[in-house]
Design goal:
heterodimer; A: Fumarate Reductase Cytochrome B subunit; B: 2 domains; 10 strands; 30% helix; 21% strand
């Protein structure tokens, strides 16, 4: 007969097959697609670095504009204007270094694809990877819905909704679920993935298509957003939300066990760390 | 009590750390997008990137019927200022001479694969059936403006000329010089790459515009010396018959109820409403009906198309 501490030691780790191949592939293809879509999108934005509300552009009153001008002493600066408020963003937005020289460009060359100003090539990257993104997304959705994976992974269970408050507290104190609780996504995780999968990513596609005069002639998509320029603005805002999501996502991956998380998204295998029990407490969770 | 079994079977399947690292390194490689620019410049890369464009064209041709109309807006939504873009004042002497006389001597030449080549004055064009449409103009750069266009449907002009059986494309030859074909090719290619259709800071077009007031006497602005040598490359565009016969495809002579201003393409500009701004050729002087696009510019069907932009500009 094994003694208490021995049992705890023996069963501390358990392997769990967490991510099926289709989901792992879809995840990494999506990483590549979104990276290229973001950078080529910033290239496209740089061709006319201003956003408006409505059907047409109100050139003298943009909602957002990223430009450069001169300070009182004549030195150049980059500025971002949002709803009439101006922010100095020299070095990153509006004015940044290009081949060692300060150059007036909305997003800096390190963030755009191609690095130099080239709208035509930026558009080609954008549309090619938009197709990859859509096809990949469709496969993910069909698989996820067909196998029930999507419901299981992304829809919070009843008990989880009741524990919403404590989940927020856990996140803020960087305490992550252990044991059986770690087998499923926690409630905040599920809800944020659900918003990304069901709202933000589809919105990117719809607002993107809203900017197409060709598609407009068949489906009046811009009307959903109050006009083509509004759709373009929403496209940009949702981009920002997705970037924010990725930052938080990567941060939490790093904080909650980077090796375990990365392994599980590459090989599928995830380690459940058992809750440490006082020896002889009699129950193994 | 039964201890939770440790699963040796699963332990065996534990992934090798090396495989994991290799995969991670591969992903890092992808995220280091430095190689993308080199890929885009290679022939394979260009072919790959064009695949997206071909897919766009395919789907839009699938979706768009000849009867799908671009949205028409109420007059109350007309933009107070219709942003003029691209060339805003052609530097060419022949054009200036026409403009000075209010385009009295203007004749639209219609030739190529037609039964009856035409030379149509503005009053000839105004005598043909007209269409007025308030539509949104979408620049490839991202901005939009709404204007009310009046003009003759292109189909009327084409019917007057009569297409030959092998006619497939309508090519628009414009009055405005964009650049000069001679000179150091490499350098020219480099500066063109940085331009966008209608970019205000277009390297060569902008210089032309800036200098035209001083050089009105010359055929082309010659202040630049070297640059003025060589053959002028004037704007050109093309559409196929599907778009040519679309009811909203017109040759516009009025904007917002007034004669088209020079900055917006006087005396005649194309409106092909289901496509982006650079397809809306300004200063149209000649319409050539062709079987293919090979002999036009570099063969991609338009000035900006020859500089990497899509021929079918529906998105």
């Amino acid at each position: 007969m094994l003694s208490g501490p021995d049992i705890v030691e023996t069963v501390r780790r358990r392997w769990m097959f967490r991510h099926p191949l289709v989901i792992r592939l879809a995840h990494w293809i999506n990483v590549v697609c979104l990276a290229i879509l973001l950078m080529s999108g910033l290239q496209i934005f740089n061709a006319h670095p201003a956003l408006y509300w409505g059907a047409a552009s109100t050139f003298d009153k943009p909602f957002v504009a990223i430009t450069d001008d001169q300070r009182d002493d004549g030195s150049p600066r980059g500025i971002v204007t949002i709803a009439g408020h101006t922010f100095d963003t020299t070095g990153v937005l509006g004015l940044s270094n290009l081949n060692g020289q300060p150059a007036g460009r909305a997003f800096p060359s390190w963030s755009t694809l191609p690095a130099h100003q080239d709208l035509a090539t930026g558009r080609r990257w954008h549309f090619l990877f938009a197709w990859a993104f859509v096809i990949n997304g469709l496969i993910y959705l069909l698989y996820g819905i067909g196998t029930g994976q999507l419901r299981r992974r992304l829809i919070p269970d009843g008990d989880q909704m009741r524990g919403f408050g404590s989940s927020i507290r856990e996140h803020l104190t960087l305490h992550f679920p252990e044991g059986d609780e770690a087998k499923r996504y926690n409630v905040l995780q599920k809800l944020s993935y659900l918003v990304v999968v069901a709202v933000l990513l589809p919105l990117m596609l719809i607002t993107g298509l809203s900017m197409s005069p060709g598609v407009n002639a068949v489906i009046p998509l811009p009307d959903l957003f109050g006009g083509r320029q509004s759709a373009r603005t929403v496209h940009f805002i949702v981009t920002n939300l997705l970037v924010l999501f990725v930052i938080v996502h990567v941060l939490l991956v790093l904080l909650s066990g980077v090796a375990n998380n990365m392994r599980s998204m590459i090989t599928g295998w995830f380690v459940i760390e058992r809750k440490k029990l006082p020896a002889g407490s009699g129950e193994i969770p | 009590m039964t201890p939770c079994p440790v699963r040796p079977r699963l332990q065996i399947r534990r992934p090798h750390r090396r495989g994991f690292l290799t995969a991670a390194a591969g992903l890092l490689g992808v995220s280091a997008l430095g190689g993308c620019d080199r890929f885009a410049a290679s022939p394979t890369g260009q072919r790959a990137l064009k695949a997206g464009e071909n897919a766009n064209l395919f789907v839009q041709r699938l979706l768009l019927t000849p009867a799908s109309l671009a949205k028409e807006f109420p007059d109350s939504e007309i933009s107070p200022w219709f942003k003029p873009n691209g060339t805003i004042e052609p530097p060419d002497r022949a054009y200036k001479a026409l403009a000075a006389k209010g385009f009295e001597g203007f004749k639209l030449r219609v030739d190529g694969l037609v039964e009856r080549p035409q030379d149509l004055s503005l009053s000839d064009l105004r005598a043909l059936p007209a269409r007025t449409q308030t539509t949104r103009h979408d620049c490839v750069e991202g901005w939009s403006a709404i204007g009310k266009w009046t003009g003759v449907p292109l189909s009327e002009v084409l019917q007057g000329a009569g297409l030959k059986p092998n006619a497939r494309y309508i090519v628009f030859h414009c009055a405005d010089t964009m650049e000069y074909a001679a000179g150091s090719d490499d350098e020219a290619a480099e500066t063109e790459k940085t331009a966008a259709p209608g970019m205000e800071s277009r390297p060569e077009g902008a210089e032309n515009q800036a200098s035209d007031s001083q050089s009105a006497a010359a055929e082309v602005p010659t202040d630049e010396g070297e640059e003025a040598q060589g053959t002028p490359v004037r704007y050109y565009e093309s559409i196929d018959l599907t778009d040519a016969y679309h009811p909203q495809t017109i040759l516009a002579y009025d904007l917002n109820g007034q004669a088209l201003p020079v900055s917006n393409g006087a005396p005649l500009r194309l409106r092909v409403e289901r496509q982006l701004g650079y397809k809306q050729a300004k200063y149209v002087m000649r319409i050539e009906v062709t079987e293919g696009l090979k002999g036009i510019g570099d063969g991609n069907g338009g000035y900006w198309e020859d500089r990497g932009y899509e021929w079918y500009a529906g998105i």
